[in-house]
What does this fold into?
Amino acid sequence: MRKMTEQNLRDAFSGESQAHMKYQIYSTVAEKEGFPNVAKLFKAIAYAELVHARNHLKELGGINDSVANLQDAFDGETFEIEEMYPAYKAVAELQEEKGAVRSTHYALEAEKIHAVMYDDAKKVVMEKKDITIGTIQVCDVCGYTHDGDAPDKCPVCSAPKSKFLAF
It folds into this structure.
């Protein structure tokens, strides 16, 4: 693939990915505000943006088998843990942006868990087996992720058990 086309697809993938996430969030807001049809509209278009992103990623050669996908996910989490979030948090602290310090701290702590989960899963999948996993609990405040019953209190942000979503 020629460089300009590749960069355009990377940029398009990024934009479609962001639109997908943004519209999912907007759907949640509409639901909470009592607009179920607006929520449905956002969900449907969010899915369309996901389709666009998937098509771009496929053309870029970014969709592989589960072992490679788990390695890529692990690598991404590791970059966020070792480089991205520490740098972002340091800048937020320097500029005394308390909300940004909090959100980067929350993300950094969750990414550490995600990296371990991906690495553990890859080891099992490399043996041509599926992982054994229970209900995955995610804190809706900070993103802390846990396999099993939700803790009474989130160890990262102290949110109560009621703030956990089960997957």
Q: What stands out?
A: The two ends are 38 Å apart (CA to CA).
